[in-house]
Amino acid sequence: MSKKEKNLTPVSSGAKKVTTHVLQEMKLxxxxxxxxxxxxxxxxxxxxxAGIDVILVGDSASxxxxxxxxxxxxTLDQMIYHAxxxxxxxxxxxxxxxxxxxxxxxxxxxxxxxxxxxxxESGAHAVKLEGGREILESVDRILSAGIPVMGHLGLxxxxxxxxxxxxxxxxxxxxxxxxKEDALLLQESGCFAVVLExxxxxxxxxxxxxxxxxxxxxxxxxxxxxxxxxxxxxxxxNQDFHPRFLRRYHNLAEEITGAVQGYIxxxxxxxxxxxxxxx
Length: 279
Known about the structure:
Radius of gyration: 20 Å
Oligomer: single chain
CATH topology of the largest domain: TIM Barrel
Number of helices: 12
Order of helices and strands: HHEHEHHEHEHEHHEHEEHH
Structural class: alpha/beta
Number of strands: 8
């Protein structure tokens, strides 16, 4: 274990509760925001105790938990199940839940109903929606009910069939201008933060500098107010995803494989359980 690793200790119980107001203060002070996904109680408990600021119950659960090719198949009921599991494991982190595909697009009344279900049935703290000006009516209606909203611009995975690819967005001037305008529109509508996914670093820096709410990047460089990664990617559980922006902090797939193989060996060799491991 390195010296750096030895100094990384879990945050003690009773750590300050992270709220949308705390995130706003962090932006004002220039303190970066750390955000990770989680989809279950046990992972959320670990991530929260480590001191993460924000936990995103992402629709990426469709990929990493259910094995779907896209985020589109996951349902509102499934998102509520994952969110409720996460909420039971946290003490201080702010928990944001993705509204899944089909739960808000084109129908602001349905958007509000979906958001209310997430808040009431899971106990989550906020919801996240993908898109800019085209979803403002839904954002306004959700905010009118007192539910905090996080936006999401750039690469929006729920629109994968519209884009046809997961390449970097907003490289062209027209799309970059639209993204800047949408970030300001989401801010003016009352969103407390926005995720910027897979856009040029310079553009992301400009957006972060021109807005008063936190901009959280994923594949958007270091000039934003915080970062988010999918925990299965960051821990090396998912071995099939290799974007430039991903830094793997561990290789759990390799460690788990080794542990399982050791267990198989010990069972077959009648080494497990030994005398100390039985009654």
